[in-house]
Every structure is written in C-alpha cells, then in structure tokens.
Amino acid sequence: MRVLMYHGIERVSSARDPYGMFVAPDAFRQQVEHLLEAGYVPIDETTYAAALRGADVPRKAVLITFDDGYVGVGEHAAPILVSLGVPSVLYVPAGLVGGRSDWLAARYRHPLLSAAELREVSAAGMAIGAHGFDHADLTRLGDADLRRQVVETRAELARVVGRPVRSFAFPYGAHDARVRLAVERAGYDHAFAVHDAVPGFANGRVDVNATDTLRSFRIKLHRHYPRARLATDRVPLLRRKAHDLVGRAPRVECDTHESTGGAR
Ligand SMILES: [Zn+2]
C-alpha cells in the first residue's frame, strides 16, 4: 500500500514556505487525477487499518494523508477530492485547531482549520486523525506530557470533530519505542511516521511537496521508491543528482532549499 503525505494545498511563495510544504491546488488536482488514470485505488483509513490486519486490498491501493490542518486543505483539497470521490485523512494538532502553525518561525506560520471547518471536511470524506496537541516533538517529553499529547488529545479531538479519532501521525515524524508504545496503548489503530518507518506503530509515507513535478510524483509512486529514497538519503550527492534528473517544479521566488527540513 502506498501512503502519500501532503501538508498544505495552497499557492504559497517559497519565501513564506522554505520547507516546500505547500502544493499548488492545480498541481494537487493533476496528481490525484494521475492516480486515478494510472489505476491506483484510493482507500479510506478504515480499509487501510483492515489491510494492516491482513484484509485484502487492491494491489495499487493508495491512502492520501495531510499533516497539520492548513486552511487550504479545506478550501482547495477537500473540494477536489470530493469531486473525484477520493477519501483521505487529515492529521491535526488538537490544541491548535483554529490557530496557526505556531511551531514554525513567526514568518512561516499559516492559519489552521477551525473546529467547524474540521467537521465540514470530515463530513465530506476526510477522516480526522491526531497529530499531537501542539506539534511538540514527542520523543523529548516526559511521561505526563506525552500522555497529554497522545491520550487526552484523542478524546479532545473526537469531541471537536464529533467522530472517533482512529489514527495518529507523529509531529516531525519523530518517534522512539516509548512514544510508539504510548500511541498503541492509547487505542489508535495505527500511526504514521515519514521516512523512518518501523514495523508496527510507525508506518512510512511518501512525502509530496512543492518541488514535485508530475514526473517526480510518478517516480515517488513506484513501490521501490521508499527504499531508493532511504539509500540516496545516506548519500546526499546521489540524492541531489536524483533531484536534478527528475526536475523540480517552478516556484514563485524560487530558492534552493531542500524540502526535507525539520518543519513537519
Ligand atoms: Zn506536522
């Protein structure tokens, strides 16, 4: 199963998004249309959870996820997904609903969906999952704080959305054995990391970002991509070469920042 990880869906200049977390709405639409044309089968989080426990799933199953809950996901991504009949999961920090991405430097902060907007997108087929309470790095917290970010957050978010919260995405993709166990014990069905997946409660995802062209997106869908990425990650020069080969999407006020920075 492929799992894609997006952040914002909105046209944002690189000056305000140095980590390349915002994909333009037209690029996002092209990517989802490509999935459907290429025979990928978008699945929802219930199907994904069942497949983890051994249920049959189509060979080209793909789960679309978004982290952080930026307003553009409600404004742009949700209508596109509804029009194409594609389900998805949105991971939000429960304590920042209706606020801003306060964990980023002030000039890179962006508004986050409100409780009413979360209920709207949830009703439109976007499951809501937990992304901690305030996007803290869970591996750095004591037990009481960890509990707040994982256990209490789950109940709070379920109250806000009016539906059970079934899965978790680690802020910054950061996890260790203690954090994974806390998430598992809190009753979540599964949890997502980013690149450093661990079998059990830290499943991997493929990061789609502002620099992706349709060509690099197609390469990322290849079933060997996560392994190839890990390999090139250990060899930075090779990784840059790979980037040169597949190209980068043009961005407003383009800079040369690598899009894998620690802002997730
Ligand atoms: Zn995040």
List the helices and strands and how they pair.
Elements: E1 2-6, E2 8-9, E3 22-23, H1 25-37, E4 41-42, H2 45-52, E5 61-67, H3 71-84, E6 88-92, H4 115-123, E7 126-130, H5 143-161, E8 167-169, H6 177-185, E9 190-192, E10 206-207, H7 214-220, H8 225-233, H9 236-246
Parallel strand pairs: 1-5, 1-10, 2-3, 4-5, 5-6, 6-7, 8-9
Bound molecules: zinc ion.
The site of zinc ion has 6 residues, from loops.
Describe the protein.
With 264 residues, the protein is of the alpha/beta class. It has a single domain, classed as Glycoside hydrolase/deacetylase (TIM Barrel, Alpha-Beta Barrel), CATH 3.20.20. The chain is 38% helix and 14% strand. The chain is built from nine helices and ten strands. The chain has helices at residues 25-37, 45-52, 71-84, 115-123, 143-161, 177-185, 214-220, 225-233, 236-246, and strands spanning 2-6, 8-9, 22-23, 41-42, 61-67, 88-92, 126-130, 167-169, 190-192, 206-207. The strands form three sheets. Strands 1, 4, 5, 6, 7 and 10 form a six-stranded parallel beta sheet that branches. Helix 3 links the parallel strand 5 (61-67) and strand 6. Helix 1 packs parallel to helix 3. The longest helix is centred in the middle third of the chain and has 19 residues, at 143-161. It starts with a strand and ends in an 18-residue tail after the last helix. The model is unreliable at 254-261 (pLDDT under 50). Zinc ion binds at residues 67-68, 131, 135, 171, 264. Its main location: secreted. Keywords: Signal.
